[in-house]
Amino acid sequence: MDNVKAVIDRLEKEIEPLFMSDSSGHDIFHLKRVFHSAMNLQKKEGGDMMAIGVAAFLHDLHSVVQNKSGKYCSPKESLPKIKEILMKIELPEDKIKRVLHCVEFHEEYNFSSDGKTVDDIETLIVQDADNLDALGAVGIARAFMYGGVNNIPMWTPKIPFGRKIFDEGKNDPSEIHHFYSKLLKLKDNMNTKTAKKIALKKHKFLEIYLKEFFMEWNGKL
Fold first, then answer.
1. Which domain holds residue 138?
2. For residue 166, which phi and psi values (nearest 5 degrees)?
C-alpha cells in the first residue's frame, strides 16, 4: 500500500491543476474518494493493488475534456493522456496496460445497450468504487452539481420516467429522471460482494430522499 500511496501522491501533483475548476461533481475529491473506496474493496476482493489504485484515481480524466468542450467524451478518449502521465512518473509498462484497460471499460452497466463486456477483478472493482460514489448523500449532491453545470432542470414532472436503455452520452430531461435511469439501478449493477453490501445502505438513502423530495415538491411539508 505504501508504494501505491507514493504513486498516487505523484499523480495528484500532475492532475490536480486539471480538476481545479471542476464544479460538475467530478473533481479531485471525487477521485480521492473513489481511490480510497477501491483500495477498501481490493483488500477484501483481491486484484492488482497498483493497477486498481491508479486506475481509480485517473478514471475521470475524460471529464476534463468533456467539461471544456461541452460534448460527451468517452473514457477511451482519455487513454493517450493517461499513458503520457504514467510514462512520466515511470510506472512499469505492464501496470500501464492494466490501468488503461480498467479506465477504458469502467463505465459499463448491465442496464446499457452493450451491457458489461469485461470480467477482470481490477476493472470490476474500479467500476464498483466509482458507482458507489454516485449513491448516498454524496451521490445526490454530485447529481445536482452536474445538473447545475449542464443546465439540466431539477425535475420536469410532465415528462414520464421511461428511459429503459441508459446511455452515458445522453443527459436525462431532469436530475430526478437521472435517479430513475441510472442511480437507482446501480445497486444491482455492483460486481463484488463487498460493494453490493455497501450499495444497499446508500440505495435506501436515495429512496428516502426521493420520498421526501416528492412530498416537499407537492407542498406536503
1. 2-217
2. -85, 140
d(CA 219, CA 142): 25
Burial of 134 (0-12, 13-18, 19+ CB in 10 A): buried
The CATH number linked to 43 is 1.10.3210.50
Cell 435506501 locates to 204
Per-residue pLDDT of the chain (221 residues; tens, 9 = 90+): 669 999 999 999 999 998 888 888 899 999 999 999 999 999 999 999 999 999 999 999 998 878 777 778 889 999 999 999 999 999 999 999 999 999 999 999 998 888 899 999 999 999 999 999 999 999 999 999 999 989 999 999 999 987 778 888 889 999 999 999 999 999 999 999 999 999 999 999 999 999 999 999 999 87
Cell numbers given for 194: 463487498
Q: How many domains does the chain have?
A: 1
Residue 20, strand partner residues: none
CA–CA gap between residue 34 and residue 154 (Å, rounded):
25
